[in-house]
Structures are given as C-alpha cells and as structure tokens.
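[step 3/7] fold_predict: job queued, chain A
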Amino acid sequence: MISHFPKDANSSTGVSGVSILRDKLQSHDVVSFVWPQEVDRGIDLVAFAVSKDGTNDGVHTAFLGAFQCKASGNDQKKRTVPVDQHHGYWSSATPPVFVANVDTSTKEVLVEDAQSFLAADKTAAKNQTSVRTTVTLEDAMPDIRLRMYAQALAPWASRHLRSRTLAHRDSSNGLDPKSTWSLIAYAGTAFRPGEPSDGMTPGNWYECSQYFTLIDSLYHDQKCRDQLLAGFPSNKAAESQHEGASSFKFLLHLLDVYTAFGELHMSMPDREAAKIDLDRAVLIIPRIWNDSVDSTLCSSSKLASRILSIGKLKRARGRNRPRDVNYLLTALADGQPMEDALRQLIEPWWDAGHSFVDPNWSSSCSQV
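[step 4/7] structure written:
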C-alpha cells in the first residue's frame, strides 16, 4: 500500500507542515502533490509551475521542482532540514530539490536549494548533517520558479543559477533576489573564479537557442512580464540603485547573448536550419524592447542611451567580436530601428552565399 503523506506525517505536525507548504506554493502558481514515500524518500512533494499569460486561468507546465518538508512546530532554534541519507540524491537529482522548514505555529516557510547549499562548501559537504534555511518562501519564489524553468529549458543556465544558494546576496552585482530578471542578469555577469567563461554566457549555438527559449517562456508569464517592466526606474538618478538597475542590466545581458549567435554559427553544419533559432530570438527581443520603451515612457534611442550609461558588459575571454552589444546599443541610441540594428550586428559573420538576411526579416519583427 502506498502512503499519501511524508514519512513524518504520522504526527499532526507533519501533516500540518505539508499542508501549509502546499497552500503557500499554490498561492504562487505552483501546484504540488505528495510523493509516495515507498517510491522515493528523498522528497515529500513534487511541484509544477503554472504559467498565466493574462488571458487564461493558467497552463500547467512541465517545469518541475521537488520539495522536502520539515515541520518544526514552534521551535525557532531548529531552522534546518536534516540531510540524513539524502546527500547523494539531493546533489544529483534531475529536478531541483528545495528543502523547506515549516513553522506550523506561524505558518512561516523557510527554504533553500539543497544542491546549492551542499555544494557551497565542497570540503565540508560530505560531513553536512543539515541544510540551513534562512530565506522565506515568498522572497525566494522568483528564484525557485526561475530554477524550475531553467532546469527544463536550459540545463546549462540552471547550473550557473544553482551555483549560488537562495540565501546569497551580492549587492556589488546589483542582485535583487526578488526579481527573476535581476537573477538572470546577475548570473550572466557575476565573476566565478576558475570557470572558463564569464557567468551565464552561452558557449555554443544550442545554448543560445535554449537561452531564448527560456526567456520567451518566462516573458509569456504575466507576473514575470509585469515584474520586468515595473523594474525600470522613473528617473536617471534611480539607475544607480541596485533594484532600479536590474531591468536595465537584464536588457544588456539579453542583447549581449544575441551577439553570440553570429560568432557561434560557425559550429553549425547547416546554417539554414540554424536560422530558425535565430528567428526565434529576432521575435522575442523586439517585443521585450518595445514593451520596455513603453514602460519607461521614452524613445528607443533614449532607452539605449540610458543602458549604455549604466555600464558595459565585459567581453567573454577568448572572444574576438567585430561587433558587440555596445555597437548594437550605439546604433539604437543613434535612432536605428531595432530590426536594422539586429541585422547589422550579426551580418559580418555571415558570408554572402549563406546570409541569414531575407525579405521576411522586417515582417517577422513587425509581428511582435
């Protein structure tokens, strides 16, 4: 007989803890169900993200995460979740595993990414007996949803995102942990000693394609879309603030990743087939850019100038780009339409016989 509740659910505290966690997840458009313990005792709940585009009640996605729940009653001193025999599983599980400590008296839920925490200190990881939980579920949900999306759509990006714990704070990189877009921008620019590339920058054509699939899926969600557009500061003075600059930094990262397409196309055996991936990016970038222009109540050229004034992304080591994101932003600041600027940015890498530019380019951009 398969049980319907986690292993500690024999107590009323265990049952209450699971119920509180499920209700909290539901309020953040994450639907969960109890995982049978006879199948797997390393997780208590499996959850799926629900995407709402503003025109429907929500679409259940295949973007999932797993949760291990520990109900603590009113014991404020034990805000940890024991590792027990789960170290190996949590460190290598296919879905991201989040551990949750639930205070059944206050209904506060503190969470952490189990893999991120265990990997944070590799020398002590094997001896870890518990995972510290210090971040509330409400504060961590943008990060949790992003990790669920990335694990399914862009595993390489998920690895970068999960290299930091949910509790991590880094004001020097302008990290706003409550903003999905700030987290993406942070992962894209954060310096990681010992790694061959700078942050979450795609290393090949397929990773570029996955990146834009991830961005497209996130932007279709109404809450994520509103979050990005609400993140722009109303005046230039606010751009120096970490939270205010997060949306600008994301746009900067989005355009920088696009510039990688031109360089990386040489790795594709069939350039015409690769053009399909490029077309997807050509559709999503103008849509996000035009919405951002409307949100900031300024012109496209003014928005480009404001982003340029914040700072320029470092070029990834080993790359020699004839034209980079700064070239693109300068063209926009000079008044060029987005579709023309995108075309001119990539064009030098495509020879005349295999040019990706076709008569439908402008019409494709106009669809957004």
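[step 5/7] annotate
The chain has a mean pLDDT of 77.
The chain has two domains: 12-137, 169-365.
exit 0
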